[in-house]
User: Which sequence fits this backbone?
């Protein structure tokens, strides 16, 4: 019998393949899978399983409780597209993204650069204070804002009144509510992204900037021409994360403060999904909305990847 | 009910005498998790014996809240467990607007609570969608009759469906006019003569507004998406949201006129264009003269007013000479228990909390209406019942809560409140076309 190689099939005296694989080879093949199994099983159970279940659910008419689940094909998707609520929520989510984008990029980048340029205890303290909104309970924060923005005696209107500006019903006026929700949510983006910009800045070689200073560059020129260009990749990543998380992170504030109102002006796709599934108990439409959200985000991610590749090639 | 039906079928083979003996034997030998509750001849359940230990889950939107609702509910549970040492209550808190969501998901997961406090605006959908056991079916008829004998007949009649009480009236309230007597005096109004009609309310509101405070607030824009005050206002103008045949009538002239009247309060400046929570905060801090909302907030309002201003109440204002027809709000207790022991234990709990002892706690500690005259009489000298007196006088005029047809009744109420009531009242939307458009949407949802 000729052994071809360790762990491969073997040939008998007449040259026929011997189907018995040595135990060691089997172990060698299975060992990587055994190591990966906990992660793969977890992914299957907690991510891909529910995803498939959601896809199946999106084809049904079901109220979450009744034993009757009717297969309705793509009716839920058709209704989502045809009725005005979901497209409206999608458009409002786009507005949230636009409103939050500066707070996900420009503001934290500026703060992170300032902190990075003045290392020391004071900088560390500021960094800790600025990070605080990330760890505060979102519902408690939202409730606090309700008192601040109360139209009859809230702090915001007291301040406006003190400087002679007209009082506002910040959360009750369709023209101001979405901006109020965006501003409340912005603190989380700023807080987290300062940290991420800080990590990117920490990787930069300070000697290059010292060299520029010796050559006579001003601090603004160093920031504008040396620091910011090196943060482009981080900014692109954080912009994409803003697109993904704008709807999710505004959800709590919308649920606590406005419930999508007034006149659906603060609605977003995640709150709409929640409303379909858990206020109207239309599980099929809620699931269809979830699938559409995944498809939209996947398309955006694909587009962004394509554009970056083309730019790299160009 | 399937299990019970199966057992009844099985007993057809057993002579009547043996069946009766077995029923008594089962009643005497209950277990903690089995079907130890026993059925009487009518299919109802006889009392548990004292050796039977049962734990029942009670879902309540008052439980665990930081205010009087939370402490009052805990007091009810404590008093019940003291009186029934064999039954343990496992309370579960939930936000008011999430009650149906929680019940649906718990039921889908196979573990609904045994008893749930469900708001009346969501009761119709709950009865349709959830495996609710009609509470009147649980005890023997004589026991039921004896228990409800002292309760408000008008409320029991209002909550009955097909002559049967599906959920027990529990924390009940009707709308009332709260007013700040100090702000009345400051505006030159006589607090002994509170307004009784919408016109008088507007006049008084404008007078108070003239002193720098806010005038009046009708709490029709409710963040919990309940339409009970909308119904009360529309009923008061001789209209309805739904007629006797279940047809949507919220775009008829009476309903349009009712909301136009409330909108006029805002347009005139007598009422601030804010939501109910903001108005309640303004009232309890002495910045709002009058507040028309549920008696449910009475205890909290009394606590807030204590030492700050004189709180008084008056009956729900009418539209001119038309009679007030307030509908009720608050909640009923529904049973979702699966087995007989838990059903009977659930009934014991419901029976206790709606007894004299229960309503005494509900009224004195939480501020809901005492639905037993004996309790109202016993507490008549208490400050809270004195303030509830105008509502108790209007109790006989209470109109049933009307629900939209179909399984999407909750969605219809949300559409009514968000797309019609709020834009009309707070943002000056034209009542006629707005109600017509929303009525069409609700008709489609009800189809």
Assistant:
């Amino acid at each position: 019998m000729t052994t071809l190689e360790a762990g491969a099939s073997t040939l008998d005296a007449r040259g026929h393949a011997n189907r018995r694989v040595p135990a060691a080879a089997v172990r060698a093949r299975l060992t990587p899978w055994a190591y990966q199994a906990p992660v793969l099983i977890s992914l299957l159970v907690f991510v891909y399983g529910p995803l498939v279940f959601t896809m199946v659910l999106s084809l049904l008419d079901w109220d979450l409780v009744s034993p009757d689940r009717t297969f309705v094909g793509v009716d839920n998707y058709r209704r989502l597209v045809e009725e005005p609520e979901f497209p409206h929520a999608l458009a409002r989510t786009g507005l949230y993204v636009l409103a939050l984008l500066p707070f996900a990029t420009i503001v934290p980048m500026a703060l992170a650069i300032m902190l990075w340029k003045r290392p020391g205890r004071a900088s560390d303290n500021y960094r800790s204070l600025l990070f605080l909104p990330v760890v505060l309970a979102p519902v408690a924060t939202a409730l606090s804002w309700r008192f601040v923005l109360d139209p009859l005696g809230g702090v915001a209107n007291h301040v406006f009144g003190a400087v002679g500006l007209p009082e506002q019903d910040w959360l009750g006026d369709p023209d101001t509510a979405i901006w109020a929700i965006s501003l409340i949510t912005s603190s989380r983006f700023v807080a987290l992204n300062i940290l991420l910009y800080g990590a990117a800045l920490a990787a930069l070689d300070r000697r290059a900037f010292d060299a520029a200073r010796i050559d006579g560059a001003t601090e603004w020129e160093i920031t504008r021409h040396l620091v910011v260009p090196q943060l482009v990749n981080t900014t692109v990543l954080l912009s994409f994360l803003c697109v993904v998380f704008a709807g999710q992170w505004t959800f709590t504030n919308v649920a606590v403060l406005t419930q999508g109102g007034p006149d659906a002006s603060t609605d977003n796709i995640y709150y709409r999904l929640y409303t379909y599934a858990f206020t109207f108990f239309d599980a099929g439409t809620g699931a269809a909305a979830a699938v559409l959200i995944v498809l939209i985000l996947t398309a955006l991610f694909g587009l962004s990847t394509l554009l970056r590749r083309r730019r790299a090639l160009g | 009910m399937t299990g019970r039906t199966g057992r009844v079928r099985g007993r057809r083979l057993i002579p009547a005498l043996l069946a009766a003996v077995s029923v008594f034997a089962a009643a005497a030998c209950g277990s903690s998790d089995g079907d130890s509750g026993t059925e009487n001849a009518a299919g109802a359940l006889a009392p548990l014996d004292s050796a039977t230990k049962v734990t029942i889950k009670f879902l309540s939107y008052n439980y665990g809240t930081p205010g009087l609702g939370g402490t009052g509910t805990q007091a009810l549970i404590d008093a019940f467990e003291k009186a029934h040492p064999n039954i343990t209550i496992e309370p579960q808190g939930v936000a008011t607007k999430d009650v149906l969501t929680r019940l649906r998901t718990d039921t889908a997961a196979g573990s609904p609570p045994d008893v749930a406090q469900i708001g009346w605006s969501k009761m119709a959908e709950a009865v349709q969608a959830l495996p609710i056991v009609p509470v009147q079916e649980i005890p023997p008829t004589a026991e039921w009759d004896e228990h409800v004998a002292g309760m408000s007949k008008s409320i029991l009649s209002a909550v009955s469906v097909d002559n049967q009480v599906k959920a027990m009236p529990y924390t009940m309230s009707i709308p009332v006019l709260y007013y700040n007597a100090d702000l009345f005096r400051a505006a030159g109004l006589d607090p002994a003569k509170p307004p009784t009609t919408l016109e008088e309310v507007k006049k008084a509101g404008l007078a108070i507004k003239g002193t720098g405070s806010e005038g009046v607030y009708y709490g029709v824009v409710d963040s919990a998406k309940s339409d009970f005050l909308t119904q009360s206002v529309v009923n008061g103008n001789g209209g309805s949201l739904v007629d006797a045949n279940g047809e949507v009538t919220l775009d008829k002239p009476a309903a349009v006129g009712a909301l136009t009247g409330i909108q006029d309060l805002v347009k005139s400046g007598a009422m601030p264009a804010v939501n109910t929570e903001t108005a309640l905060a303004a009232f309890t801090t002495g910045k709002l003269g009058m507040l028309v909302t549920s008696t449910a907030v009475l205890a909290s309002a009394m606590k807030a007013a204590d030492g700050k201003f004189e709180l008084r109440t008056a009956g729900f204002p009418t539209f001119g000479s038309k009679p007030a027809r307030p509908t009720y709000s608050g909640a009923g207790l529904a049973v979702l228990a699966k087995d007989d022991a838990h059903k009977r234990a659930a009934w014991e709990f419901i029976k206790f909390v709606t007894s004299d002892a229960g309503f005494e706690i509900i009224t004195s500690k939480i501020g809901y209406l005492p639905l037993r005259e004996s309790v109202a009489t016993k507490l008549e000298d208490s400050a809270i019942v004195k303030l509830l007196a105008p509502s108790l006088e209007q109790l006989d005029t209470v109109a049933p809560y009307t629900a939209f047809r179909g399984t999407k009744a909750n969605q219809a109420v949300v559409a009514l409140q968000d797309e019609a009531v709020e834009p009309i009242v707070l943002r000056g939307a034209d009542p006629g076309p707005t109600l017509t458009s929303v009525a069409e949407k609700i008709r489609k949802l009800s189809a």
